Amino acid sequence: MKKRAIIYTRVSTDEQNNGYSPLDQKVKLLKHCENNDIEMVGFYHDDKSGKTFDRPEWIKIMKFIKKNRGYVDNIYFIKWDRFSRNVAEAYITIRDLKKMGVEAQAIEQPLDFEIPESKIMLAIYLAAPEVDNDRRALNILHGIRRGKKEGRWLGARLRGYRNARDANNRPIMVPEGGEQEELVKRAFKEFATGLYNIEELRLKLLKEGLKCNRSSFWMLSRNKGYTGKVLVPGYKDEAEHWVNGVHEAIIDNETFFAVQDILEGRKKKMPNKFQTIRDEFPLRGYLTCSQCGRTLTASSSRGKMKTLFYYYHCNKGCKERYKASLINGEFEKLISKLTTNEQTIDLFGVLLKSSLRNRNTSVRTDIEKIQKDISKQELRLKNAKEMVLDGEITSEDYKGMKSEIEKTLERLISDESKLRNALENYGGLVDDAMDVIKELETCYKTRDTVAKQRIITSLYPEKLIFEKSGYRTTKMLDVITLINRYDAGFEGNKKGKSRKFCNSSLQVDPERFELSSKQGIKMLSTCLKCI
């Protein structure tokens, strides 16, 4: 009776140039069937790895054999490494095929399974491909580790970068220089201010072109690769660690660690509640109900002509409800009355710089303290190395100690960098804040909603109250009050008449807005410098 057989070919991408092309295998198998008068009842080809039998076409073969028991006599392939590169799974599959009356055979490495000694040759044929596979994997592993230790970013490029070649024609990751790079930089910079919830910032940047889901954005914000580092994974006794990469950093260490402080809860600036920001409601969250004292919310309603109307209102049963255009307009009038003399602002800037300069002594003391802590941690690391060499501690203990010390060192170096930056750049920060104060009205009217809210929180330490019946006194941040008070020396006149640049007095400020009873003082420059 004529035998029936299925012919099977398999190839992985890196094997196609080594005499294992699918066409070459098929031609040889068909010729074998023809020469031995064997009927071919099926041809299947996989382009998957031989590490497992979880291959699409092989699964189809097993289903066909189970459905048509006794119909197929053999499965033919070129060599045993085409069948499998996993000894354990290969033996199990050969046994399962034998139960169904099917014999697996390699036409270039034939075996007679009736002869017991053939099992030795089968073991060699199956083990050799697995050993070869393991050797390749090990070589690749060491190659990847060596490349990473050299500072090369291996794998998918980071968002905001593009793949390129260096002077030696080796692959390298370089800044994209386009929209995505700019959006990634903004993501870190804006999140470091602490003014955004992480999901709120993601949705904002998503609208501007940063295609990133929640998990990807979270991983992006924690990826030290953006600071020019490369992670070398732990292997055996070597702990996981970061090395300096050959790729250019697009995020500075200070900004990166400021983001990490917020994410890890060391910095209590991050809003813990997500709130959608809408251009129609810049004052949402900053107004208090005059009746119940709760924060006013905002919403829109649709009229008969499908026109949207916008309102600030209380959702706790009070009748407090005002048109958004009215409240927004009144607040712009309030801002316009804060215009002050540039000489006053410049003088205040000089005085503020002088005050900060005097504080630099304490900052230098803090830097010296941190430097001592860094030296102490470096000494601890050196002592730990000596202890493991002397056999006083195990390599596993040293691994844990080293990881802990390196994390502490990283944090101390970051803190030192922040203090040095503050020490060197305080003058520029003061100048930026003073420039915003000079153009406060223009800044508020022309900037986006987020910038407007920064101005609101920078000027008024507590929430505002709006009343339809009349106007009330508004208390501003102390620093603004001080600037207006100093201004009296420049524009006051001998007759004691009110100043032209501001209609409000020190005792009675512009009406209709009022702060709630809480008192507090906040630093102005923190928010204004971000606008």
Task: Tell me what the structure shows.
With 531 residues, the protein is α/β, with parallel strands linked by helices. It folds into four domains: 4-143, Resolvase, N-terminal catalytic domain (Rossmann fold, 3-Layer(aba) Sandwich), CATH 3.40.50.1390; 161-263, Hect, E3 ligase catalytic domain fold, CATH 3.90.1750; 287-336 and 441-528, no CATH class; 342-425. Helix content is 49%, strand content 12%. The chain has 16 helices and 14 strands. It has helices spanning 22-35, 56-67, 80-83, 87-99, 118-149, 179-192, 198-207, 214-222, 253-263, 324-336, 342-389, 395-438, 440-446, 449-459, 478-491, 525-528; strands at 4-10, 39-46, 74-77, 103-106, 161-165, 171-175, 229-232, 241-244, 287-288, 297-302, 308-313, 321-323, 464-466, 513-515. A four-stranded parallel beta sheet has the order 2-1-3-4, sandwiched between helices. A hairpin with a 5-residue loop joins strand 10 (297-302) and strand 11. The longest helix is centred in the last third of the chain and has 48 residues, at 342-389. It starts with a strand and ends with a helix.
